[in-house]
Design goal:
Helix content is 6%, strand content 61%. It has 218 residues and is mainly beta. An eight-stranded antiparallel barrel has the order 1-2-3-4-5-6-7-10.
């Protein structure tokens, strides 16, 4: 994966800073990297031409976060997420009537945005705790089409805010270094990126991110 090499480098650098640390600080900065999966759909503004046309694709994603731990059980975070690059190709029998048969095109999309969330923590012991996240992301979608049935105008952008939530297990490795395995789902937003021809619109749909992350406290 394109971000996988960042994890060991971050672990090495952050561990070096954690030597002889005092009491655990309340502020922290974190980086999560992993695999993302999107479930997209195509639709028409005036009639359900693509109501049952859905596709999915996998990519790599990352999340940067800056947090403040207010107590043993609660924290707040702000950050940025890049959910990856996706490609979707309608298969045989999934084209709308306006295409009169096969539709030979591929939709390329990216999804990213600024986010904020609350973190709820349940300590299991001195080293491990379960974490839950609920938050809001202002997600920006960029989409374009390529292929014989696409034109140079088959591209668009849209942005909208929506909810996301996640679960994770965190290891408190040192006073300054935490390691987390997590899963996050970004809920489907009402995107309407217009893709020509035939006024077809594209919706990125739900995106999930399975990740491993490190956080440094300062």
């Amino acid at each position: 994966m394109r971000y996988a090499k960042l994890i060991p480098l971050c672990c090495f650098a952050l561990t070096a800073f954690s030597v002889n640390a005092a009491a655990a600080p309340k502020f922290y900065v974190g980086l999560d990297v992993g695999g993302s999966r999107g479930k997209a759909e195509y639709f028409h503004d005036s009639q359900p031409l693509f109501a049952e046309v859905r596709d999915s694709d996998s990519s790599e994603g990352l999340r940067l976060r800056l947090g403040f731990q207010a107590s043993r059980y609660f924290a707040m975070e702000v950050g940025y997420a890049d959910l990856g690059d996706f490609e979707y190709t309608p298969g045989a029998g999934t084209c709308p009537p306006l295409f009169q048969g096969e539709c030979d095109f591929t939709t390329h999309s990216t999804a990213s945005g600024l986010l904020t969330n609350a973190v709820f923590m349940l300590p299991l012991n001195e080293r491990f705790r379960v974490k839950g996240r609920v938050g809001w992301i202002n997600l920006q979608l960029k989409a374009r089409e390529t292929g014989p049935d696409a034109t140079v105008t088959d591209r668009g952008t849209d942005s909208e805010g929506g909810l996301f939530y996640g679960l994770g297990v965190e290891l408190h490795a040192t006073e300054r270094l935490d390691v987390e395995l997590g899963w996050t789902q970004f809920e489907q937003l009402a995107f309407g990126v217009r893709l020509s021809p035939n006024d077809v619109s594209f919706n990125q749909g739900k995106v999930t991110l399975a990740s491993i992350g490190v956080a440094y406290r300062f």
